Amino acid sequence: MDNVISVKDLMKIYIMGTTQVKALQGVTIDIARNEYVALMGPSGSGKSTLMNLLGCLDSPTSGEYWLNGTNVSTMTDGELAEVRNKEIGFVFQTFNLLPRLSALENVALPLVYAGMSRSQRNARAQEVLNAVGLGDRVDHKPNELSGGQRQRVAIARALVNNPSIILADEPTGNLDTKTSVEIMEIFEEIHKNGNTVILVTHEPDIAEHAHRIIRLRDGLVETDIRNENVVSAYDPTHRYKEK
Fold first, then answer.
1. For the segment 89-143, what is each residue's pLDDT rounded down to a tens digit?
2. I need a surface site. Which of 36, 61, 78, 219 has the fewest CB within 10 A?
3. What is the C-alpha to C-alpha distance for residues 135 and 200, in angstroms, rounded to an integer?
4. Model-level pTM?
5. CA 115 to chain centre
6. CATH of the domain at 46
7. How many independent structural domains does the chain possess?
């Protein structure tokens, strides 16, 4: 199997004064290319820590993390930044858009670091905004967009570099039920197009869209199961818990 992610005995320990907090206690998982995975767990389970490590936003205390066949667990901050920009697209609950930039400019921003010309950046940003249904909102700033539209801009920004992996941290957390359905439809299309999608959520009805559900507790993998009843976001009979 072609694994895009392989982690072995991943440990993360934080020092809080004289106390050691073991956020991850030896996590071992493989994620194949084009998998759709949900990470779940209660507060303090380690899922956010694991997300940060998988996203190359932090380094493990010990253990190995192989991303597309490269050991990234001992990389410098600068090397991790290069990997992030090339391999990983992030989608956050709070959107993290720059308020003074238009939708097009927000989406094009990661391409600055890729060395593309302005015209190339804008053309690519327009392309992905079209793909998420916002081709007619490219000049709007975040405060001129609804919550769902802002999340679409954030998804377009995550896609603009053609990353291997999409990491989404509670992407529907700030959205109403109807808009959450629309956003999950986009993630379904992203997965169908060949991307690996890793979704952090505490909502079981959102996790039901993933093909595999990994639950963490106390820094350990509690369960890792194949979802035999994957729910399509396009299924009109599926009922979400009202927010």
1. 999 888 899 999 999 999 999 998 888 899 999 999 999 999 999 999 999 999 9
2. 78
3. 28
4. 0.90
5. 24
6. 3.40.50.300
7. 1
| Tokens found for residue 102 | 């238009």
Question: CB under 8 Å to 104, separation ≥6 — which residues?
Answer: 122, 125, 126, 129, 138, 139
pLDDT digits (tens, 9 = 90+) for 16-75: 889 999 999 999 999 999 999 999 999 889 999 999 999 999 999 999 999 999 999 989
Alpha helices in 6-146 (DSSP H): 47-54, 77-87, 103-112, 118-131
- The label of the residue with tokens 């001992």 reads 74
Query: If we measure between CA atoms, which residue out of 64, 23, 57, 53 comes closest to residue 220?
Result: 23
Range of the domain at 152: 34-60+74-226
State the Cα–Cα distance between residues 196 and 192, nearest whole angstrom: 9
Structure tokens at 131: 């793909």
Residue 221 tokens, joined? 């993998």
> Please, are residues 215 and 223 in contact by the beta-carbon 8 Å criterion?
yes
Query: What's the 3-state SS for 18-51?
Result: CEEEEEEEEEEEEEECCCEEEEECCCCCCHHHHH
> Is 202 within a domain?
yes
